[in-house]
Amino acid sequence: MGLTGSLHCAGMCGPIIWIMPFNNMVGLRKWVSVFLYHFGRVTVYALMALVLHSFKSLFHPQWQQTISIVLGSVFLLAGIVSFIPGSKLKIALPWMEAVKRQLGKYIGNPAMSAIFTSGILNGLLPCGMVYMALSATVSAGNAISAMGLMYAFGFGTMPMLISITILKRRFSVLNIHFAKLVPVTLFVFGSLFVMRGMNLGIPYLSPKVVVEHNQVKASCCHKAN
Question: N or C, which terminus of the chain has less Cβ within 10 Å?
Fold first, then answer.
């Protein structure tokens, strides 16, 4: 999801990355700064997974299918609405404005600590792809696995975002096209989540899940030989 959804990241986070001070750095300092920024961002995703997984006992295993369908439907609808000319769909969360104000204080500061803090604040900004990935962590076996899933997701987005840093001039021209792909990404992943929740028994796309004694006992991702 991180790799295939990174076009969404390019459209949404590209403008932030282009004004980060590490774009004006050279050598080792530049790449350490880039790593610190993304590590801060991805670590926030992992901590979100840790918090969400701590409430796992409140979720009945069968609810995961319903959650998948509902969440997928929301992003499927968001993708469809985004195709309508003149429509603007925004995710507004209570802490969004406060995070933006703090990000504005740190985003131009070339200090390593400020760059790391900017990454952390970026990770707190609303992102549909992140929330879709987080929904999968509820089914993780333990908290470490849940955090690992989000680290994997976050690191999967990094090749595209680092490419934006390296090829800033070229990608700045393409950013408009990336932004147009955002609703397509929402539509595709929304459809996928709805299919997965429908328990259709389609290998990999909608595997059959069997729940016994309030636990997931089988999840078939292959056709039987």
Answer: C
CA dihedral sign of residues 206, 156, 171, 12? positive
DSSP code, position 39: H
Length of the chain: 225
Under 8 Å CB-to-CB from 151, ≥6 apart: which residues?
42, 43, 45, 46
134 Cβ neighbours under 8 A, 6+ residues apart: 45, 48, 49, 52, 150
Beta-bridge partner residues of 219: 209
What span, in angstroms and rounded, lies between the C-alpha atoms of 168 and 34?
14
Q: Angle at the Cα of 48 (from 63 to 34), degrees rounded to 5?
A: 140
Give me the long-range contacts of 212-216 (CB less than 8 A, separation at least 24).
Answer: 214/60, 214/61, 215/61, 216/61, 216/139
Maximum Cα–Cα distance for the chain, whole Å? Answer: 59
| Residues whose CB falls within 8 Å of the CB of residue 218, separated by 6 or more in sequence, listed in order | 208, 209, 210
Per-residue pLDDT of the chain (225 residues; tens, 9 = 90+): 888 777 777 767 777 888 888 878 888 999 999 999 999 999 999 999 999 888 877 766 666 777 778 877 877 777 777 667 665 556 566 777 888 888 888 888 889 999 999 999 999 988 877 887 887 787 777 899 999 999 999 999 998 888 888 776 555 555 555 566 667 777 777 787 788 777 777 776 666 666 565 555 545 555 544
Report, in angstroms and rounded to the nearest whole number, the Rg of the chain calculated over CA atoms.
19
Q: What is the pTM of this model?
A: 0.74
